[in-house]
Every structure is written in structure tokens, then in C-alpha cells.
Amino acid sequence: MLHAMEQEITIPADGRLPDSFKAAFGHKARVIVLLQEPIIMDQNDSERLMAFAGTIDWPIDDPVEWQRQQRNEWERPWD
């Protein structure tokens, strides 16, 4: 049986749910957020994200070759 909890709230900046949802804490739930006004993305968001481009230290030079090597290491009963 499903149990629905509905309350109109303003989600605080820290993203924590209010204590009125305490009965749901620690339980699996489906969360649907309905906003009355559209979210306007700050134009600086894309610039902020692009600052991370190329910063991941990835130890694999050739991903395709790495994947082939991984597959070759699998044990196969027909070999």
C-alpha cells in the first residue's frame, strides 16, 4: 500500500526536508517536485562548469584498447 505525504513548502538552501516528512526518513520513496514558477538558470552556470573541462586525471590513454584488454582477461569456458 502506498502512503502519500503532500505539503507545500519552500525547500531551504541546504536542501533538507522539514521535520513534517520525518515519517519518510530512511524509507525508499519516489519524490516528485512540482514548481509553480520556472527555474531560471544563471548564465554563469555553463561558464562555471566549463572550468572543470579537462581537469579529470584519467589514467587511460586509449579507452578502446583498455576495454579490449579488460575483455581479454575474462575467463571463458570455451577457450
Entry keywords:
single chain; 79 residues; mainly alpha; 2 helices
User: What is the terminal separation in angstroms?
Assistant: 51 Å
- Element order, helices and strands? HH
Largest sheet: none
User: Over the alpha carbons, how many angstroms does the gyration radius reach?
Assistant: 23 Å
Beta-strand content: under 5%
Summed over residues and divided by their number, the pLDDT gives a mean of: 79
Specify the helix fraction band.
10-25%
Structural class: mainly alpha
The count of DSSP E runs of length 2 or more, i.e. the number of strands, is 0
Number of helices: 2
Could you explain the architecture of this structure?
The chain is mainly alpha-helical and 79 residues long. 22% of the residues lie in helices and 0% in strands.
